[in-house]
Design brief:
single chain; about 230 residues; alpha/beta; eight-stranded mixed sheet; six-stranded parallel sheet; 3 helices
């Protein structure tokens, strides 16, 4: 008989966190050296092509080359970065990535040539996420649930005689403050700030700022309470 047979339905097990507690070791010196050589000797398009060549593999060399290519492209890239298979990147030259960051399978991070994407230390980004990173700041120790999305811009829709897709874009900074947690399949809309230590529930659509240490859920997201001891 299973050891879980007597566990009441809905009961959960408490286990230690893995990513959030792991120590970040310094990367080998040769990685920074090779990334520097790529940055000096290759066009950005060549490094992007090399990243794509190794983008699907799960072996040591594939993961190593994804990390080296991203380090060669980004403004800054810390130690211990893990880039899972299938990740897509656009305008990585605008990225600043901290230590101990994990980017999950088939996530897309789309920057803009004149923007900034800053990802802090020990951020965990779940699989199948989409980050409109034209002006995006994710501070330290943020958990980003699988499938969650952020939109950083919207069309003005003016003038009316143009198709909406042809009208100007309004790009607004999205900020997720330290220690916040974004639930599975949540959506953050342009210009919002997710306060420090707050929780955005699964599937929520956030249309306005979330105060620190607050729990929000729903469509549109509403405050459900505050985190307490």
């Amino acid at each position: 008989m299973s050891e879980l047979a007597d566990v009441p339905a809905g009961a959960g097990r408490i286990v230690k966190a893995v990513h959030g507690r792991a120590e970040v070791a310094a990367d080998p010196e040769f990685e920074a050296g090779l990334a520097g050589e790529l940055a000096v000797r290759c066009e950005r398009s060549e490094i992007v092509a090399l990243f794509r060549r190794f983008s699907q593999g799960e072996g040591y060399v594939d993961e190593l080359m994804r990390r080296i290519c991203l380090r060669g492209l980004a403004r800054r890239c810390g130690n211990g970065l893990k880039v899972a298979p299938g990740v897509g990147i656009r305008h990585a030259e605008t990225f600043e990535i901290g230590d101990g960051v994990y980017i999950g399978e088939h996530t897309v991070i789309q920057g803009r040539f004149d923007g900034l994407c800053r990802i802090g230390n020990k951020v965990w980004i779940g699989p199948h996420s989409f980050l409109d990173a034209r002006d995006l700041v994710i501070e330290d120790h943020v958990g980003w649930g699988p499938g969650a999305k952020v939109l950083g811009s919207e069309h003005t829709g003016i003038p009316l005689d143009l198709p909406i897709i042809a009208t100007d874009l309004c790009i607004a900074l999205v900020r997720v403050e330290a220690g916040a947690d974004i639930g599975v399949n949540a959506v953050l809309l342009p210009g919002v700030t997710i306060g420090r230590g707050s929780i955005v529930g699964a599937g929520a659509v956030v249309t306005r700022d979330v105060p620190p240490f607050t729990k929000v859920a729903g469509v549109p997201a509403r405050v459900m309470g505050r985190r307490d001891a």
